[in-house]
Specification:
29% of the residues lie in helices and 24% in strands. With 178 residues, it is α+β, with helices and mostly antiparallel strands. It has one domain: 3-Layer(aba) Sandwich (Aminopeptidase). The termini are far apart.
Length: 178
């Protein structure tokens, strides 16, 4: 017998393919998110201790927003502290692209999310990344090929690039001097 929709026994992910996709809120990760993100990643993608420490150091740098990148987090809209996905983004200098490129290097998703929800989270992260990049004068977004592989194709606006990555050109936001 299926659980009542509001009961604690009801599944977090709907079984019906035409069920609505859970709404997610994309935000920039902050240093205060480090412990929560580390605990979440230990369940989502456990690693041996040395690799987990290296991942934590990389994420600490991104969460500090020190100019080397950002970490985009997708929270469940109904439960704001329930993390659905995480997209760490490194800023890389590129001679070929003549400037900095925001490169999505990993994609971690809560186990059990259906394909539609994973896709919606990735598209929302990429839209937020594009807005953030434009606001900061970054003209290019790149996604690693493995990141896109299981997501039903590249998000809107991305196309294959000669370097093997998925590329999206970003037009910087107009600046108003007043």
């Amino acid at each position: 017998m299926p659980a009542a929709p509001d009961s604690p026994d009801s599944p977090a992910v709907p079984d019906c393919p035409d069920a609505p996709v859970p709404q997610g809120l994309v935000r920039l990760g902050l240093g205060a998110d480090a412990a929560m993100l580390e605990a979440w990643l230990a369940t989502v993608q456990p690693l041996p201790v040395p690799a987990a420490r290296a991942r934590r150091l990389m994420l600490d740098e991104l969460l500090a927003q020190s100019g080397r990148g950002i970490c985009l987090l997708v929270d469940d809209a109904q439960a704001p502290h329930d993390l659905l996905a995480c997209l760490p983004v490194a800023l890389l200098p590129s001679l070929e692209l003549a400037g900095l490129a925001a490169c999505g290097i990993e994609w971690w998703v809560r186990p059990g999310l259906d394909a539609g929800s994973r896709r919606a989270c990735l598209e929302a992260c990429c839209a937020t990344l594009a807005d953030w990049g434009r606001a900061h004068g970054i003209r290019h977004a790149l996604l690693a090929p493995g990141l896109v592989a299981g997501q039903g194709g590249a998000p809107p606006g991305f196309s294959p690039h000669g370097n093997g990555m998925w590329h999206r050109s970003l037009v910087p936001a107009a600046k108003m001097l007043g």
